[in-house]
Amino acid sequence: MSHGQTYLYNNDQTYYNQDYWSTIDFYHLPGTTVNTRLRNNYQAQSTASSKSWAGGSSINGYVTAGMELADPTSALTGKKSYFLFDNELVALGAGITDTATVDANNGNAPVYVHTTVDDRKLNSTGDNTFTVNGTVQSASLAQGVQSLTGVNWAHLAGNTASGSDLGYYFPGATSLKTERLARTGSWSLITAGGSTTAVTKNYLNMYFDHGTAPTNASYSYVLLPNRTASQTSAYASNPDITVLRNDASAQAVKEKSVSTVGANFWTDALTTINVDGSAYLSSDKKASIMIKDWGTSLDISASDPTQSNTGVINFEIQRSASGVAFNDANVTVIQTSPTIKFSVNVNGKKGAAARVKFNLAATPTTTRYEAESAALTGVTVATSKAGYSGTGHVLASSFEATGDKIVFSVNAPAAGTYQLKVRYADEVDKAQYLKVNGVSLSNLSLPSSSGSWMDANYGGITLNAGSNTIEISKFYGWSDIDYIEISQ
């Protein structure tokens, strides 16, 4: 539907039959963002949207989709994205804006903007158990609209013995309105020549109320099909998804359990998505992209959902790759290190997604060795400098005499070059002697850290397979030493 309706099919195989369409509230179709302005039947039917962004990308059944909403009968606009993973659907909305406060064609009734999470048809008695944050809600069909706050999760029992329950997760908790009601309609109300026989079905309506004339309103929720109430509660306590961004420039989600990121970019401007607080993905044009990390490779699908770009889209991913496994003809790989950069020529592709797959370099393994656990000669362990790792650190004032040293026993899985990092603290620039397996190397330079803990990256050292020793001994002395790290 033009306002973003979602269809959910499960074991309730007759759900969309049995007078669903004659009794559903067309102002609250699941997934849609609409205003309550009075409309006539068929109004704006077959009218093309004034916005071109509609489409997405996919990898192995995982889908990123989106649409730029522009209501043909009002000033309502917004950005809507849907991310389908292994067992959840994530829905994001942003930039939801409208100008109307009252409907002059309906007695100046207030015009509200709603995004419907669900308007679920219930059983014949309408008493399906509805649970919010662990509390079972009233089953009355006459309770009217309920305003709920701090909603983290909800669960609705299905209409069949199994396979039709629905869980709902709300990142960050939210405010919702719900109503359990009996709704009466007829086919003649929605289609010319339809039956005039009145039919009644029971529903549970659940929606975000964005108020009147909202500006840049937003929402986020996750549908969890076939989850029990306890499974939904457990998911909400430790969700598999993280909303990376949800605004009018971009919407993005990471699904942690399947190592997949989906993103929709809404502007022709360089826009960046962060993961864990650091830049991860950027695009310079409107685009949809999905990235699946297989551990040894990075699988990517990207498209121009507007179908109007006659040039290229440039992407950058803050990862390095060891090579290209394959790429479609319209994908140009610019670089694989230190970051991945590629462009997609979308001219004439009519929204079709392009694929590229990068082989990933082995993830560096890092092992930490604490100074207080090393073999110590002439130095003492202290806990006086805050922020140390482990159980203590080598005290600078004890690291002063010729022959004072710290000897780390290091195990290497294979012979080769490893990177050495030393964590230390100094008031002024200093240097210490360094030996690996008894062989002297260039001095270990320790620039002033103004007394705070800092890392010195020495660079490459050669280790044997199995046991090795790394010795730091006094040249200048008077350095606090916390630990060393060896990585390959």
Folded structure, characterized:
The chain has 2 helices and 38 strands. With 488 residues, it is mainly beta. The protein folds into 3 domains: 20-239, Beta-galactosidase, Chain A, domain 5, CATH 2.70.98.10; 242-360, Sandwich (Chondroitinase Ac, Chain A, domain 3); 366-487, Galactose-binding domain-like (Jelly Rolls). The strands form 7 sheets. Strands 1, 2, 3, 4, 5, 8, 9, 10, 11, 12, 13 and 14 form a 12-stranded antiparallel β-sheet that branches. A 7-stranded antiparallel β-sheet has the order 15-16-17-20-21-26-23, with no helix packed on it. β2 (54-59) and β3 (62-70) form a beta hairpin. The longest helix has 9 residues, at 229-237. Pfam families: CBM_35 (PF16990), Lyase_8 (PF02278), Lyase_8_C (PF02884). This is CBM6 domain-containing protein. Residues 367-487 form the CBM6 domain.
